[in-house]
Amino acid sequence: MTQTRIKICGITNASDAVLAASLGADYIGVIFADSPRRVDVSRAREIRDAVPGVSVVGVFRNQPLEEVVDITRTSGIDLVQLHGDESPEFCNEVQKQTTKPVIKGFCADRMPAEDELAEYTTTSYFLFDLQRGPRFTSEDIERVWSAVSRSRSKGFRVFLAGALDPANVKEAIRRTHAFAVDVCRGVEQEPGVKDPDVLQQFFVEARS
């Protein structure tokens, strides 16, 4: 199996993007949805221009089609991540109008079955998000990791996100065979600002 890719999400400035790229990031995520890490189009373009060799993913959640398409076209992002309740038809339309690969995200409270994933006929990737928080349990981790492993065994390209950090990413990759791991809070000093040492250690563990 090919090496698991790494996505560093919640990037808000060019310097963190350059650092992540220098460490070997395959994807950089910028958030256009409501979030403390939200960026505008001009900042997203700065980040896009700073890392020409890395794919930049724009993250949206339940936003109007016209807004998603307009931001995608003007920001220069390479992939569109839809992280809300977007239907297969909505994802199809985003892909059609932007011509960008789509990542459809699902949160831990509703892990999709493989037949549901198959309905997203033009979606290139899926993302299963544990959503780090005070209430998730070891059972939640097991459920999401098992869902990733099961979907991977059926041939779907799935990103594993949420509650990842240097302490558990190696085990997460071993257990799930995820197409990619996606980290945000687990490598931050504060919302939107990455910790260089922790970020570097994440790469060391993920690649070991």
Blueprint (SSEs and pairs):
Elements: E1 5-8, H1 14-23, E2 27-31, H2 41-50, E3 55-60, H3 65-75, E4 79-82, H4 88-98, E5 102-107, H5 114-117, E6 125-129, H6 138-153, E7 158-161, H7 169-176, E8 180-183, E9 188-190, E10 193-194, H8 196-207
Parallel strand pairs: 1-2, 1-8, 2-3, 3-4, 4-5, 5-6, 6-7, 7-8
Antiparallel strand pairs: 9-10
Helix pairs in contact: 1-2, 1-8, 3-4
Question: How would you explain this protein's 3D organization?
Answer:
- This protein is of the alpha/beta class and 208 residues long.
- The protein has one domain (5-207): Aldolase class I (TIM Barrel).
- It has helices spanning 14-23, 41-50, 65-75, 88-98, 114-117, 138-153, 169-176, 196-207, and strands spanning 5-8, 27-31, 55-60, 79-82, 102-107, 125-129, 158-161, 180-183, 188-190, 193-194.
- The strands form two sheets. The chain has an eight-stranded parallel β-barrel with strand order 1-2-3-4-5-6-7-8, surrounded by five helices. Strands 9-10 form a two-stranded antiparallel ribbon.
- The radius of gyration is 16 Å and the shape is globular.
- The chain starts with a strand and ends with a helix.
- The relative contact order is 0.16.
- The mean pLDDT is 95.
